[in-house]
Amino acid sequence: MEDESPNLPKVISLTNDYYQNLLGYSVQDTKLKSIKGEQWNSFCQKSNLNHNSSGIYLPRNKTAIIPKNNKLSLFHEYFGHGLYCEKSLSGRKLVDLEKRLLEEEKLEFSNSRFTLDDIQRFRKRNQTFQELDEFRKQNLGIYEGFAIWTEFLLSGQFNLREIFERKYDSLNLENKAVIDEMINFNKQYGNLATFYEFGLARKTTPERVKKLLEDIYGKEAINNSKLVLLTGSKKSFSDIDLFASSNYLQSIKNSWLDLVVFDEKDFEKKVRLFEVQVIHPIINGEFVIGDKNYLEQKRKQLEEQPITEEAIQHNLKLSKEQEELGLKYSRNSKERQIGLSYGKTYLANALALKNGKRPLTKERLSNLQCKKFIELKGGMK
């Protein structure tokens, strides 16, 4: 984006291209209305907006309204609030609540003339409005925070950073600290991570994952890693599940990224012992980074290496450990369910190995679990 002062349609086109490349999507459903400068004050007065307002976004009809040619307002309202309401679960819920309220207001006032006071009185006793008002209060920080960070991001793309800094120079220290925190996160972990931290949809591909990891760990650490594989459902609002054999990365677990890392020596041991935690990624994982030949070697090893008593006992031990760990948590807790589930999976794997079978996929392990109690009746030493 080298054009220092393109017009608004050009800015929109360039930004959508940039987002499409970075995120795999761009603004689609949001409408834009720009109002000439001399008419802006009149619009604010009629709309009951602060006369110092530089734009507004209406979730109920996904419309951004800004003063004509105001690029920072375009970034804030159209690409900030607009993209958030299209591509985040919280934003979509906000839109749904606004639309529901609109329909209820239409029904209430369809056969009569009404004033702004009438609407306000209706909203005070309307359950949908109460839910919407509470939801807006709870999510105001992230809603406005994302829009402000979008201004920061795109002002840099279009050489408008100085204007952005002047605009927010008048903020109080508390609000400046919040913005600085967002910017510092962005500088440390990159643009993709920042979008995902705000809860936006994840279009997960190996290429996008590689870029994400390079931003987080640095290219050198990524390029020196033996193997990184993409697993999981890859759904837009599920976390990104990754598996790695690397001496240069550390495991990460947060609301949008779950990276499991084993150092190279530990990984080799787990493969030799047919450990479930590595079998599934090796067989079903999608290659992201590393040595493709090494991945094929590990797949072949799982198919051909001898099944040892050590491997059987190792999986039995892990089954017992996971079951005991799960039972430490309360009966209906997620942690208990996970621990017991892992325990069953390791047990099914051990039984399969004892019978000379190689359950090399998660699906085959699941099928074996239903047989385990029958097989256990004969005892297992």
In short:
The chain is α/β, with parallel strands linked by helices. It folds into three domains: 8-197, no CATH class; 206-302, 2-Layer Sandwich (Beta Polymerase, domain 2); 309-376, no CATH class. It is built from 18 helices and eight strands.
What characteristics describe this protein?
alpha/beta; 3 domains; 3-stranded mixed β-sheet; Beta Polymerase, domain 2; single chain; 18 helices; about 375 residues; disordered C terminus
What does it look like?
By secondary structure, the protein is of the alpha/beta class. It folds into three domains: 8-197, no CATH class; 206-302, Beta Polymerase, domain 2 (2-Layer Sandwich), CATH 3.30.460; 309-376, no CATH class. Helices cover 62% and strands 10% of the residues. It is built from 18 helices and eight strands. It has helices spanning 8-23, 37-46, 71-87, 89-109, 116-124, 127-157, 161-167, 173-189, 191-197, 206-217, 219-223, 264-272, 276-284, 292-304, 309-327, 334-354, 362-369, 372-376, and strands at residues 31-35, 56-58, 63-67, 227-231, 240-245, 252-253, 257-262, 286-290. The strands form two sheets. It has a five-stranded mixed sheet, with helices on both faces. The longest helix has 31 residues, at 127-157. The protein starts with 7 loop residues before the first helix and ends in a 5-residue tail after the last helix. The model is unreliable at 370-381 (pLDDT under 50).
